[in-house]
TrEMBL record:
Coiled coil: none annotated. GO terms for biological process: regulation of DNA-templated transcription. It holds the Pfam family HTH_IclR. The lineage of its organism: Bacteria, Bacillati, Actinomycetota, Actinomycetes, Mycobacteriales. One of its GO terms (molecular function) is DNA binding. Signal peptide: none annotated. This is ArsR family transcriptional regulator. InterPro entries: Tscrpt_reg_IclR_N, WH-like_DNA-bd_sf, WH_DNA-bd_sf. SUPFAM superfamilies: Winged helix' DNA-binding domain (SSF46785).
């Protein structure tokens, strides 16, 4: 009989290792923050000197961090007799570096699809989330780093930041198309929502109104005050 294939098991999600996901105490955060400054790891003594804490106190925090899988430990090469020194290393990723690498990846992926294909990808993305209200979209945009502002007349949302900007380079047009498809599908308004990217006042605008404002051209739609 053919051998039974072992079930595939994915590695741990990187988001589980983000400091925000670990619910660390202020002292644990302080120890972890200093440890992350040592790319090849550090001993408890090295950390205690940097933190101004007793080495045993630092070890206690490190044990707690190991229990949360935020830190690993290994024995340093033996230096004569006695117990080898333990070297601790942070397992948490650099969230800024992670974001920048994925921005770069998405930018390259966007170059191999046209804007219409990107819009369809955005629609598929939205369908995986389900439809929502304008207020729910605002919360989602805020969480994702778009720094949104809903105009008082609720005709538009101005996006004052973009998680896909890197080194001040504007995103590829297909990235903007992906977002337009997402906004249209999420708000269940494929014909009533327009996205005006890269406006002269350094914002992008989601036009929500289905009245007279929506009938104007992108050039005529007013800039936010």
């Amino acid at each position: 009989m053919p051998a039974t294939q072992a079930p595939q098991r994915a590695p741990r999600a990187v988001t589980d290792l983000f400091p925000e996901s670990l619910a660390l105490s202020p002292k644990q955060n302080a120890v972890l923050g200093v440890l992350r400054e040592f790319p090849h790891g550090a001993s408890a003594t090295q950390l205690s000197e940097r933190l101004g804490m007793h080495a045993n106190t630092v070890r206690g925090h490190l044990e707690e961090l190991i229990a949360q899988q935020a830190v690993s430990q290994r024995a340093a090469p033996a230096q004569g007799r006695g117990r080898p020194t333990l070297i601790y290393q942070a397992r948490v990723p650099d969230t800024r570096a992670v974001a920048e690498e994925y921005i770069d990846l998405i930018t390259h992926l966007a170059k191999v699809i046209d804007v219409d294909q990107a819009k369809e990808v955005g629609r598929l993305w939205a369908r995986s989330k389900g439809t929502g209200t304008v207020d729910e979209l605002m919360e989602k945009l805020r969480t994702l780093g778009f720094d949104p502002r809903l105009r008082e007349d609720r005709t538009a949302i101005d996006l004052r930041a973009c998680p896909f900007i890197h080194d001040q380079n504007p995103p590829h047009p297909s990235v903007c198309g992906l977002h337009e498809g997402f906004f249209q599908e999420y708000l269940d308004a494929p014909e009533g929502i327009r996205f005006l990217p890269l406006r002269s006042n350094c914002t992008c605008t989601i036009v929500l109104s289905t009245g007279d404002d929506a009938a104007t051209s992108p050039e005529e739609f007013s800039e936010p005050a």
